[in-house]
Amino acid sequence: KGEGHVEGEKIENPDTGLYYDEYLRQVIDVLETDKHFREKLQTADIEEIKSGKLSRELDLVSHHVRTRLDELKRQEVARLRMLIKAKMDSVQDTGIDHQSLLKQFEHLNHQNPDTFEPKDLDMLIKAVSAKYK
C-alpha cells in the first residue's frame, strides 16, 4: 500500500541465468560493503566498468573486503573443480586436462586460484558483458 523503498532495504535482483550468478552476486555484495568502492561504482558509467577502469579501484578496498573476496574466489574455484570432476566421472575419460577445462570458465583467473585480484574483477565484468551483448 504505497510503501516506498526503505533506506538500507535489500532489493532482490532477478537471476541472470549465468552459471556463476551466485558468485557474481556475492562479489558485488562484498564490494558494496567498502564505502570507497561503492562510491566509485555509483558514479562510474557503464563504459568505465566495461573497460576495466573500475577494476583498478580494487587495490584501494579494505583488507577485510579483499580477504572476503579471496575466500569467495577459492570457493568458486572449488565449485568449478567439483563440476569438472563430476563431468569427468560421467564420461570416465581420464585423459582430460584440468587446466584446459578451467580455461572455459572465463569469469575468473584460474591461474591464481587463491586470491581475488583486479584481473579477476575485470574478467568477471567482461564475462557478464559478453553474455549481454
Automatic annotation (TrEMBL):
Pfam families in the record: NUCB1_N
Entry's localization field: Cytoplasm; Golgi apparatus; Membrane; Secreted
Main location: cytoplasm
Molecular function terms, GO-annotated: calcium ion binding
Domain of life: Eukaryota
Keyword Protein transport included in the entry's annotation: no
UniProt domain NUCB1-like N-terminal: residue ranges: 7-128
Keywords: Cytoplasm, Golgi apparatus, Membrane, Phosphoprotein, Repeat, Secreted, Signal
Cross-referenced InterPro entries: NUCB1_N, Nucleobindin
Gene Ontology CC, one term: endoplasmic reticulum-Golgi intermediate compartment
Protein name as annotated: NUCB2 protein
Source species: Odontophorus gujanensis (marbled wood quail)
